[in-house]
What does this fold into?
Amino acid sequence: MSVLIFAEVADGAIRKSSQEALYYGAKVAEMMGTTATALAIGSANTDALAAAGRFGVTKVLHAADGALNEANSMAYASVIAAAAAHEGAKVIVTAKSTLSDGVMARLSGKMKAALGANVTDLPDLSNGFRVMSSIFTGKAFAVTELKADVKIIAIKKNAIVPVETAALATVEAFAPALNDADFSVKITGQTKASGAISLPEADLVVSAGRGFKGPENWGIVEDLANALGAATACSKPVSDLDWRPHHEHVGQTGVKVSPNLYIACGISGAIQHLAGVNSSKVIVVINKDPEAPFFKAADYGIVGDVFEILPKLTAAVKAL
Ligand SMILES: Cc1cc2nc3c(=O)[nH]c(=O)nc-3n(C[C@H](O)[C@H](O)[C@H](O)COP(=O)(O)OP(=O)(O)OC[C@H]3O[C@@H](n4cnc5c(N)ncnc54)[C@H](O)[C@@H]3O)c2cc1C
It folds into this structure.
């Protein structure tokens, strides 16, 4: 028996968000006195997969079938179920993501598993198998006992801080039998979101709101983001007004981000916006209105005009 971790792959390597899941899964395996195996699906570089060993897994199963290069949640659920059977895994771990939300819902149905989603901490094994989840868009926590034989844990970003070693994992080819039903939904095309840094994965985010008055003023937002190596984001009205693309919209109805640093510029801090950003490690708010609600959620606040503050901040970052 082992713990199985679904490791998402992008550009031939395991995604940064899945590295946390690898470490988390390895820690759960340690608590249960077993080992951790990762599962990577789609084309990937073998050396990059072996590097999963740095996060504590001993083995990586690689399902490299070309038909799996497009993230198809039905087929992925079948591959994970087959890998769990192969490893005798009763605990399956993943990073919570747009892909894993669909995959794990299907997998829990397929395996009659108990699913703990948005999990914020290692499980408590002292009395059953209990996990703590973030609920109500981050405003409360729920403790849930996972009672089914198979348990799935989808961890929230920043649930654990990985500690890396120099260890490497062995990589084994894995080719489960799949059938037409696994591919009954077909992805016919994909358009990659623009922006050099992927917003859901970003460690640093510079986000801007309606305080910028119009799309022509976004140059100073991009200058600060470029100086920091940050992704750019925006509030919902900004994308509704077509000032910025929709994939930059963060909040309850947009992308959920948990970067180490979130800089909110000219954003009021409505509850629906906070719902998507409130698990950021450090929040900096720049707003000319000292009563803006965002200041209540801020670690650092600057009361001032974004058109004056941002160029100064960018110059200071560049000087550093
Ligand atoms: C069902 C529902 C879902 C929603 N989902 C989302 C969501 O996912 N994400 C989201 O963002 N919103 C969402 N909203 C909208 C949300 O309620 C707010 O209306 C929105 O977040 C406000 O955007 P904003 O802060 O950019 O604009 P505003 O509320 O107009 O705030 C602009 C801010 O900029 C400041 N400002 C103006 N000029 C300057 C300047 N020169 N320098 C510094 N500061 C300045 C102002 O003081 C103000 O605080 C949702 C609403 C509903 C009803």
Notes: The chain has two domains: 2-183, 204-319. The first strand starts at residue 2 and ends at 7.
